[in-house]
Amino acid sequence: MLITDTTIVNAQYVIEQHRDIRIQDGKIQEIAEHGKCMQTDTDTVNGRDLLFMPGLIDSHMHTGQQLLRGQVLDELPMIWTRIMLPFESTLTPEKMRFSAELAALEMIHAGTAGFVDAGSYYMEEAAEVYRQSGLRGALSYSTMDQKGLPESIADTAKGALEKTDALYDGFHRQGNLKVYYSLRALMSCSVELMEGAAARAQERDTMLQAHMNEYAGEVNFALERYGMRPYEFLANRGILSSQFLGAHSLMLSEKETELLQEYEVKICHCPFSNCAKAVPNTPAYLNRGISVGLGTDGTAHGGMSLWNEMKIFRSVMNVRYGAPAAEPRIMPAETILQMVLEGGAAALNEAGSIGKLETGYRADLIGISLNQPHLLPSRNLIHTLVESVNANDVTHMMVDGKWIMKNREILTLDEERILYQARNWMRKGEE
Ligand SMILES: [Zn+2]
Question: 73, 95, 292, 365 — which has fewest CB within 10 A?
């Protein structure tokens, strides 16, 4: 497979023009000046008006909240207990399948080639859809054993772990999918469940993920219940490791930041969603070499465009840290792209194999149509990617060397049928 005469973002976040990319066996085999690649006579895409870069990676999303689009904007806190939790308790296999179809379409069109789902219910239904979509993803069950949950989702520690075991047995390393163990949040899980999930993840050599340090109430809960802040408690119980992914991770003490560095924990922020909660000290985390990805927190929080999240993140960082110090480069465009791509690769536990357009990396690529008035001409295409590119500009996607979208046409899912169902869904006003 050959993409010819295109513009690329190279592994050092520098733009190169007139490049050919040769792809074979799911990998990037060669990147060279136009005309210099080994020629193949199969499947050539003319990349002249396109920019190719690694597919974006959403480090934290929620398939199970796909049907909540538009529901939570302008809502008072706590939306988790008032809206999300009651909604998720009414999920059915049919709703999860439909949610995954819609989420997959939304991600593909937005250039998101890889994602980490934080965990919901009937995940097997979602997994079937994602396997068909060709996207690269990590899936979890929503895992909690707190008392007083609606009957449909109430569970014991043992029961909750067995659900992920079954998902793991069925889908881990099937196609481009992985299965992670998860803890919904420390407040929702017993110590038995936390330790059990960590042990299972370690035994099966997969990641453990949790919502971490997202609300002040959650930090206070850990201090009251355990006498320690959330990350301190996990370190104390032997649960932190380089295979731990802490979503949000907003309110971190100096000691907790040191722990993330020491244990090589992966974290990610969700800028649109996080604006309602806190501004993380990302420059300090990055200075310590902590891997930080970006996530959307699912479509209920402003949709699943990482292009939007990058713009919001840059603005928030500048308001909080850049402008007061008159230092506009507090969070440069290259760093933000690196967070989405390499931070995302780490969140997928694939650092070194995805997230860069480099020979030997898996061929997870997206093409962006540059031939548009809001993108041309540009004096710095790296800046333009962060400030001006939107989801609608993505025309091509390839994951593991297979085309998923070409010229905006999705090849793996029936978009027309799914959108027809979505229109009917709205007309009927289904819950
Ligand atoms: Zn979340």
Answer: 73
